[in-house]
Description:
The termini are far apart. The protein has helices spanning about 5-30, 70-75, 130-140, 155-165, 185-190, 210-215, 225-230, 235-240, 265-275, 280-295, 310-320, and strands spanning about 45-50, 80-95, 95-105, 115-120, 120-125, 145-155, 195-200, 210, 215-220, 250-255, 300. The chain has a single domain (about 35-85, about 125-320), classed as TIM Barrel, CATH 3.20.20.190. The protein is an alpha/beta fold. Residues about 1-25 have low confidence and may be disordered. GO terms for molecular function: phosphoric diester hydrolase activity.
Amino acid sequence: MNKTLGGVAVLAASAALLTMAASAGATSACNGSSKLCSRTLDKVVLPGSHNAMSSKEFGFGIPNHQFGIPHQLTKGIRAMLIDTHYGKPRTIVFLGRPTVVIDDVSESTPGRLPYLCHVSCLSGAIPLSTGLKTVADFLKTHPREVMIFVNESYITPADFATAVTSSGLLKYVYKGSTTTYPTLSKMISTSGRVVMFSEGSTGSVAWYHQGYAGSVQETPYSFLTSNLLTSPSSLAASCVANRGGTTGKLFLMNHFITPTLTASYAADLLTTAAAVNGKATIVARANACKTARGKYPTIIAIDQTQLGDVIGAAKQLNGV
């Protein structure tokens, strides 16, 4: 045999074996690692995104992230804190061109629609069903991933449920108990891979759970300066119980800075995120919270997911 052709054949065979091995690993892994499959959800650390919908990519003013939900999912974010509001589209002329803006409206406004917005839909808005469809599409092509959503909701539970259904996400929603959880492997095999929480009312929607009514516990979230999350002397205080007390099986570690509102606020958001999003910083605080609260965080929620290494931090904490 020609030596060159023989070498090509060997390389091709090796590549095929590597592809098969990678494929086999992917079909046996849970959230990227086979080690996580036998763990219940409350024993897994998920990298998370605060105000996940608020991104520069999708035109939000003073965004929490450079890139939107689709990119965050690809990067490895598996828990998302979102806000939902009512809005109503209106066309204006801006710089000589027709432009659609989304006005903030109330529940009683005719023609209202649910959107993913932060504070005001005028500063950025994504139709809720559209945003959730990107999640459903991702889960369809990534069948071994488990996620959590926490919704700061200003819409009715019924309207949220309608958007979940119309987006195609309902088929992946977890419909079991939030007192105890199955293993990730079990959640995957039963297609209950997305746990849905609300910060408020959930109405009669059985799979939609009141997060801070016994299911989720958290840390404070109003940190003004980065040293409050980086200084060893401040870590214990950063882990004290906030909403949800200390009883929930799941634990949210809010790991982001909300600086004082000044002319440099947008720049400060980036600077402080860069200061607190490092892998070592996140791991040190998670360890401090483990000491203070008796458990590792289930969700580590950060701003500016393009900065730092929350993915690597979660892997280290998971031991994978």
